[in-house]
Amino acid sequence: MNMVVADGYTANPGDLSWEPITALGTCTVYDYTKPDEVVPRCKDAEVIITNKVLFTKENLSQLPKLRYLGVLATGYNVVDLEAATKRNVIVTNVPNYCTESVVQMVFAHILELLRNVGHHAESVRQGRWAKQRDFCYWDTPQIELSGKTMGLLGYGAIGKSVASVALTFGMSVIAHDVITPKNQSVSFVDFESLLQQSDILSLHCPLTDSTKEIINKRTLEKMKSSALLINTSRGPLIREQDLADALVNGTIAGAGLDVLVVEPPLQNNFLFQIKNCNITPHIAWASVESRQRLINSAAKNIQAFLKGTPINCVG
Q: Catalytic residue at 100?
């Protein structure tokens, strides 16, 4: 069986092994594949693994041997599912591989905003502590999570895990989702109440027509002036200019973002200049353990396909 990994660098820049996949057949792994390289590189492949390389109606029509297309991610909008289905190509994704990693990043952002660890550590390196009269100092309020309200927009696997950690910090948890499961530890509220009651609002919903720019001037103005906004989900959930204005004007107290509307962002993105906005480069998913689970799960998807019992099918 001939297999191609179209763009493997992001998942594995060299610190992990592709062996779980390469052991299943003849496999060529490319770090990156440009649009005009898709067909030449993949024309003889029966199995293709992609992360962000697009598989459109046009290039799928030029891949006559293709039987299986595995997306090395949870989102699968890089594949034209209708075209793949018409060509009897099985398409799979990898769900729930990065839950632990994303939850950790949510609280990394929260704790940095509340305790400013990076700032204080740098001030110590610069010799400030050694010059202090007192045994300690702090430049920003040191705020506890205990007693605060964590608000979750979306209550899927990641939202549930964030709730669990928040509860161990002594927080109360409220959530809003299109589905309202029964859970005695979490209170489900309408969207307006979520905005108004949350001390920290963390976004964990998919990007759809109804959720695009759901965080905007109107919704930000309903939040507490002391509230924090965390987004490890999808950048376009937030209207960035409105968030920038809200941070500068004190409408909310701070934001921690792992995703932006445009990625990679433009160098002059206005959010970069806002002190109470911490931005990480879409790495919430990218722990070593998470990326290895991604590769292992992709291999299991291929194995199931080869046995005639495909799993995690999306098309």
A: no
CATH 3.90.660.10 fits 2-97+288-306, yes or no: no
CA distances from residue 238 to 32, 69, 196, 203 in whole angstroms, order as listed: 29, 31, 17, 10
Which amino acid, one-letter code, is at 150? M
Element (H, E) at 50: strand 47-50
pLDDT score at 178? 87
**Alpha-carbon torsion (282, 198, 111, 94), positive or negative:** negative
How is the chain split into domains, by residue range? 2-97+288-306, 99-279
Q: In Å, what is the CA distance from 112 to each residue of 224, 260, 271? A: 19, 19, 17
Q: Which entry of 120, 176, 234, 293 is annotated as an active-site residue?
A: 234
The residue annotated as part of the active site, out of 37, 58, 122, 263, is: 263
Structure tokens at 289: 């353990």
Query: Is beta strand 200-203 parallel, antiparallel or unpaired with respect to 172-176?
Result: unpaired
Q: Do domains 2-97+288-306 and 99-279 have the same CATH topology?
A: yes
Residues of the chain with pLDDT under 70: 183
The C-alpha atoms of residue 111 and residue 276 are separated, in whole angstroms, by: 13
Q: Tens digits of per-residue pLDDT, 122-154?
A: 999 999 999 999 999 999 999 999 999 999 999
Q: Position 89: which residue type?
A: V
Q: Is 282 a catalytic residue?
A: yes
Per CATH, the homologous superfamily of domain 99-279 is: NAD(P)-binding Rossmann-like Domain (3.40.50.720)
